[in-house]
Amino acid sequence: MRVVFLGPQGVGKGTQAALLGARLAIPALSTGDMLRAEVKAGTPLGQEADAIMKRGELVPDEIMLGMIKKRISEPDAVRGFILDGFPRNIAQAEGLDALLAEEGRPIDAAIRFRAPRELLLKRLSGRRSCPVCGSVYNMETNPPRKDELCDKDGTVLVQRPDDSEEAINRRLDIYVTQTKPLSTYYEAKGVLKEVDGTRSIEQVRDDVAAALGLTAASSRVGAQ
Ligand code: AP5
Predict the structure, then answer these.
(1) Amino acid 164: pLDDT
(2) Residue 180: pLDDT over 70
(3) d(CA 54, CA 78)
(4) Residue ranges lining ligand 1, Cβ < 6 Å
């Protein structure tokens, strides 16, 4: 299954992509995580992306398309993938479609998560992540078991540098002007599904499953 997750920053795309990826045994591909790995490794691409990401702006389309083209051609993505954070604008969506058309494997579904801006700001300000394994927590809604330490490896959790108020507001503005129009794009292709992102992580997980025609899972989830 090839799925695109759409929705504003903080709505829970990364959280849900990890859950669905684990359930379907397909990779959850976050372009934000890929870029952060480049920044951490200090590659030329990472150096270029670092300042752009800190400002909350978009990295150029050619770079993003090249990155996705390479990643979806890897063996673990043959059975499918979930795209979290890509495409971000119409040019990226058209580029992705052209790539997939060459291989005869189009997008099966685009899920759009919705939530009001006040809730997004609240969630983003409470977000903490593990710099080692990438697990994501929320100090209010999905806290770690002990202090600000990762449940999986005990590392001290950190706040993302682009979760400053100024960068969050810029990212949300760019979402409205550039990314939101993708709903119309995927609706016209007949693959758009809407999910209410304001519900609990478990409820949203089950709504995603229902939107994709899967049965609901039963367990409570921890950090992703
Ligand atoms: P990226 O890493 O994609 O960040 P983003 O777009 O800002 O999205 P977020 O990660 O903030 O939101 P999310 O919906 O995944 O929320 P999460 O699940 O963490 O991109 C970063 C930057 O990289 C971009 O700004 C850009 O510069 C660059 N970039 C990336 N892709 C690009 C592209 N294609 N083109 C160009 N540039 C690109 O949840 C948020 C919080 O809420 C967490 O604390 C979580 O625990 C909590 N939470 C989640 N769900 C729930 C729930 N249901 N109830 C309660 N709490 C919840």
Answers:
(1) 86
(2) yes
(3) 33
(4) 7, 9-15, 30-32, 35, 52-53, 56-59, 64, 85-86, 88, 92, 123-124, 126-127, 136-138, 141-142, 162, 171, 200-201, 204
